[in-house]
Amino acid sequence: MILGIVKGTVVATRKMPELVGYKFLLVEPVFGSKKDTIVAGDNIGAGVGEMVLVTTDETTQHGLDHPSPIDAFIVGIVDNPPTLSK
C-alpha cells in the first residue's frame, strides 16, 4: 500500500467500457522519488491536495466494483494526515 498526495487528474475521453465510472488521479508517493508518480483509479471522491491510500498490484482487484484493467486504486482518503519531516 502507498501513502501519497493527489497532484492532479488524468482525462481520458475514450476508454475501455470496464473503466467507465472511474476517475483517474496522479498520485505522488510521500516516500520515494517524485519520478514515482502513479496514475490511480478512484471512485471514492479524492481530490487534488488530499493524502490518500493506494493499493497496487493483484490486491487492487479487491477494491473494484467489477474486474477492470487497473493496477493502482485509491482505497482511502486520510482524514488526519501525519506530520512528515523530510
Helical percent range?
under 10%
Under CATH, the homologous superfamily reads EutN/Ccml
* Structural class assignment: mainly beta
Distance between the termini: 20 Å
Second CATH tier, the architecture: Beta Barrel
| Rg (C-alpha, Å) | 13 Å
Instruction: Write down the CATH topology.
Output: OB fold (Dihydrolipoamide Acetyltransferase, E2P)
**How many independent structural domains?**
1
Q: What portion of residues belong to β-strands?
A: 35-45%
DSSP strand count: 5
- Give the H and E element order: EEEEE
Largest sheet, if any?
Answer: 5 strands, antiparallel
Low-pLDDT residue spans: none
Protein name: Ethanolamine utilization protein EutN
Keywords: Bacterial microcompartment, Carboxysome
Subcellular location: Carboxysome
InterPro entries: EutN_CcmL, EutN_CcmL_sf
Concise synopsis of the structure shown:
This protein has 86 residues and is mainly β. It contains no helices and 5 strands.
Structural key phrases:
mainly beta, OB fold (Dihydrolipoamide Acetyltransferase, E2P), 86 residues, EutN_CcmL_sf, globular, 5-stranded antiparallel sheet, bacterial microcompartment
